[in-house]
Design a protein that fits this description.
50% helix, single chain, 46 residues, two-stranded antiparallel sheet, 13% strand, globular, alpha+beta
């Protein structure tokens, strides 16, 4: 199972703003689980 990161940390690691990451979640490009994002998905945006 991939490591789950909270959204602010995933955004920092991807080098984008938290709002930008949330936009990708909102439009369905990314999925979350209990408010967290899988690290392999987060790396896609880096």
């Amino acid at each position: 199972m991939p490591e789950l990161l909270d959204i602010p940390r995933a955004a920092r690691l991807a080098g984008i703003s938290r709002g930008e990451l949330q936009r990708h979640i909102r439009i369905g490009e990314l999925e979350t689980f209990e408010g967290k994002i899988a690290i392999n998905v987060a790396e896609t945006w880096s």
